[in-house]
Amino acid sequence: MGDAIALLLLLVGLELVLGVDNVLVISIFVGKLPEKRRRVARIIGLSVAMIARILLVVAVLALASLTRNIIWHFSIRDIVLIAGGMFLLFKAVREIHHTVELRADGEVELPPDDHRGYALIVVQIVLLDIVFSIDSVITAVGLTDHIWVIIGAVVLSFLLIMVYAGPVGEFIIGHPTLKILALAFLITIGVTIFMEGMHKEVPKAYIYLPMGFALMVELLQMRYEHNLQIKKGKQNQG
Q1: CA torsion, points 88, 11, 48, 94, in degrees to nearest 10?
Q2: What is the secondary structure of 157-211 as a DSSP string?
Q3: pLDDT higher than threshold 60 for residue 55
Q4: Which of 15, 159, 206, 236 is 20 to 30 A from 153 via CA?
Q5: Residue 145: predicted pLDDT
Q6: Which residues, in sequence order, are bridge partners of residue 71?
């Protein structure tokens, strides 16, 4: 029982680390929605994505077919990763263009009554989460054959992601330079996913360490600008 709990905690940690990609994607997608609808979109998107991931775990016996070649030397897993990586690249580059050209506030944000666009964003969140989840599910299945442990890790990690996805997402949306940096991260992640589909393994440390360093530099720059504004305000008052 103790081993099962330790493994559960290990899988939850794994899901949370991989969940960073999810938070970035969700933040960018729901940014097109009116502020009042973002929270509901996050909850619905993550809930449906959680159910989809659980169904993928339940289908554990069929996972072997995901890595079996079906077209040349590409498996179902490879095709999904290639398609998902290309889609993520397209979305990230498109969003960077809209943001840099100052089109995000006018042409991109959806009106409150656009139910079709709302549903499309939720669907995109779910589909990209499935792409992100393939490797984590295969890894989890390789670590244990206790389905309840894997499902428990999925549920716990999604609950935690729901808690911090909102604050992190709103913070990114409220800071344009941070949003561009997040989109640049998504381009890196998209390239990584595509390369994995092409059987080119990219060490995750080479991705997350530069991302973390760039984020730290950006946060320091934001802190500097904040302090500079405060100092200028005091000088003007004096």
Answers
A1: -10
A2: HHHHHHHHHHHHHHHHHH-HHHHHHHHHHHHHHHHHHHHHHTT----THHHHHHH
A3: yes
A4: 206
A5: 66
A6: 74
Whether the full predicted model's pTM is greater than 0.85, yes or no, is no
State how far the Cα of 79 lies from the Cα of 85, in Å rounded to an integer: 10
What is d(CA 67, CA 146) in angstroms, rounded to the nearest whole number? 21
Which tens digits make up the pLDDT trace of 181-197?
888 888 888 888 888 88
Strands 74-75 and 69-71: antiparallel
CA proximity to 11, closest of 99, 171, 139: 139
CB 69 within 8 A of CB 79: no
At 16, which amino acid appears? L
Burial zone of 237 (CB within 10 Å; 0-12 exposed, 13-18 middle, 19+ buried): exposed
Residue with token string 């599910």: 137
In contact, 4 and 16? CB cutoff 8 Å: no
Total residue length of the chain: 238
On whether the CB atoms of residues 180 and 99 are closer than 8 A, the answer is yes
Q: Which residue stretches of the chain are H helix?
A: 2-30, 35-58, 76-100, 115-143, 147-174, 176-197, 205-237
Q: What is the DSSP letter of 62?
A: G
Phi, psi for residue 83 in degrees, rounded to 5: -65, -45
